[in-house]
Every structure is written in structure tokens, then in C-alpha cells.
């Protein structure tokens, strides 16, 4: 069973989703309050079954809640979970193979729904 861990970084907060083996599956951007951070975790739990847009293949699902697979600046394969406005709620970087990236998305889908929040 996965879990969300919340940590304070200076005056901001972020969370990590960890798989049952303790490995970090994905992380969040920074939030300015603990309340925003926890609200974002609940949003991820509610939307972790979103469809996948593979922008490396030119796919575009438009403005909707989705995972987006993309290349980072160093050519690594990454994913992020976006809301309808394109705001990032969860991201993972550094995959060398698209198959591994897709397995990361599946790990979010498997671990996030019932994951407890650990401060």
C-alpha cells in the first residue's frame, strides 16, 4: 500500500507519493500552505484514473484532467498529472524508457486512491 508523505521546505510544502516498497513514484510542486498541499493530495486521489496524453507522439487531449508524457530538457521521459487549466499536481522525471514511465503512471493509479497522508 502506498502513502503520501508531506514535507516542509522553507516556507512551502510538497508531497511525495511512495509505493508500498518505499520508493518515490512521483512528487508535487511546492505549495504555500499545508492546507493547499493536503487539498492537492485529495485532488490527486480523486483524479488518478485520468487518461494519458503522450505528447512525445504528438497526442493532444485538449484542456482536460490528464497525465501527460513528455520529454524534459535533458531528453528524459517524464509524466505529470494536470488539471483542466494545465496546473501540475504530480510529476515524475528521469525515465529512460517510455514503458517505465507508463508503469510509473500505473503505480500512481494503484497507490494513490487509498494512500494515507503522513506528515
Describe the structure.
The protein is α/β, with parallel strands linked by helices. The protein has a single domain, classed as PH-domain like (Roll). 24% of the residues lie in helices and 36% in strands. It contains two helices and eight strands, in the order E-E-E-H-E-E-E-E-H-E. The strands form two sheets. It has a four-stranded mixed β-sheet with strand order 3-2-1-8, covered by helices on one side. A four-stranded mixed β-sheet has the order 4-5-6-7, with helices on one face. Strand 2 (12-18) and strand 3 form a beta hairpin. The longest helix is centred in the middle third of the chain and has 14 residues, at 34-47. The chain is globular. The chain starts with a strand and ends with a strand.
Quick tags:
alpha/beta, four-stranded mixed sheet
What's the CATH C level?
Answer: Mainly Beta
Report the structural category: alpha/beta
Distance between the termini: 17 Å
> What can be said about the biggest beta sheet?
4 strands, mixed
Q: Helical proportion?
A: 10-25%
